[in-house]
Design goal:
- By secondary structure, this protein is α/β, with parallel strands linked by helices.
- Helix content is 28%, strand content 21%.
- The chain has a nine-stranded mixed beta sheet with strand order 3-4-5-7-6-8-9-10-11, with helices on both faces.
- The longest helix is centred in the N-terminal third of the chain and has 19 residues, at 46-64.
- Mean pLDDT is 94; it is low at 1-18.
């Protein structure tokens, strides 16, 4: 990292799940169910996997804090503050209400040429305190991060919101009842999906999420909790905790992310009740592409390989093996042309070409 079931629009009933799930010592051994006494049995059906998946989400919430209940939702009350026309798209700067007192700044890009409803992609930016959402929307100096623009030019409606304490977003999660910036981000991004589904230009059944670095794992986190997101691309976004800086989880434990990793779990990967093999598996059977450069100084590529290897049996069980993929470009912590080509074609495959 650099610094480093449906409830009224919320997916999979996560707000209703109890958080007393057992913790799994081996978080890469996914096809197993554990009870409160520590006894285990194999997962042999899709129905059993759903229970294991509920345990994963519950253990994520132990670290991230509870997902707000559906009754926290308020009308989006979108306010457009600026509109700029480009040859292939219109960019709208706006804010939307995630809950009372919390308005999220974002850029919305809508293709000018369109026929019928379009697929949409939530485009989550990397760590950038000054520009925030502007990085994905084309305002930053590194063009490889301009994926909201690239995808709008490719025929997608794209939404790029600010993450906690970045860009123009000033809402303090810990001062407003959230346990982590990560969970506030998940909630805000889910409300971003609500916004996309509300647009007349968007096919609400064809929504994806993409991000680089900070945005890469935030795309995974929101998709884990929101099954409306059909396809996810994470570039330079994760590896398993034991291989994140040789197990030093300080970067993950900042207040902007998940401070309980520090305060409750002592920065110890073995004590944190979830890990990224589980997050990847929780996306199944939806499409997931890990774009993991061979020389990423933040996320050791071997830790990404571990996660993909662990999640593959889950995708196999759900008869969705073709929906799990990894690309390992020969570069550092970047999103170069060849990696983006693979990523955009992956989004096309599952959001444009698939029924």
């Amino acid at each position: 990292m650099v610094l480093p079931l449906v409830l009224a629009g919320l997916s999979c009933g996560v707000a209703a799940l109890a958080d007393d799930a057992p913790v799994y010592p081996d978080k890469a051994n996914l096809l197993v169910l554990r009870d409160g006494a520590g006894d285990e049995k194999p997962v042999e059906s899709a129905e059993q996997w759903q229970l294991r998946r509920k345990h994963i989400l519950a253990n994520m919430r132990k670290v991230m804090g509870p997902l707000p209940a559906a009754d926290r939702k308020v009308p989006l009350a979108v306010e457009v503050v600026e509109e700029t026309e480009f040859p292939k798209y219109v960019r709208k700067k706006l804010t939307y209400a995630a809950h009372e007192g919390n308005r999220v700044p974002a850029y919305l890009l809508i293709p000018r040429a369109r026929s019928g409803k379009l697929p949409a992609v939530l485009c989550l930016h990397p760590t950038e305190f000054r520009l925030g959402k502007g990085v994905a929307a084309g305002l930053g100096g590194k063009s490889d991060r301009h994926y909201a623009v690239h995808l709008a030019e490719r025929g997608y409606v794209t939404l790029a919101p600010d993450y906690v304490a970045m860009g123009e977003y000033e809402y303090d999660p810990l001062a407003n009842g959230f346990v982590s910036g990560t969970m506030l981000g998940i909630w805000n991004h889910m409300r971003g999906v609500d916004l996309l589904q509300s647009l007349p230009e968007v096919d609400g059944d064809r929504i994806g999420a993409v991000g680089h670095s900070l945005g890469g794992h935030n795309a995974m986190f929101v998709a884990a909790f929101d099954e409306r997101i059909r396809c996810v691309v994470s570039n330079c976004g994760f590896n398993n905790f034991p291989k994140y800086y040789q197990g030093n989880l300080t970067g993950w434990a900042q207040d902007l992310y998940m401070p309980r990793i520090r305060t409750e779990y002592g920065l110890d990967p073995a004590q944190v009740p979830f890990d990224f093999p589980e997050v990847v598996a929780a996306l199944a059977p939806r499409a997931f592409l890990a774009s993991a450069p061979l020389h990423d100084h933040n996320f050791d590529v071997t830790g990404v390989e571990d996660c993909i290897r662990a999640a593959r049996p889950v995708y196999r069980l759900l008869k969705a093996e073709e929906k799990l993929a990894a690309n390992y470009p020969d570069c550092g912590h970047d999103f170069p042309d060849d990696a983006r080509k693979v990523a955009y074609e992956w989004l096309d495959r599952w959001l444009k070409d698939a029924p």
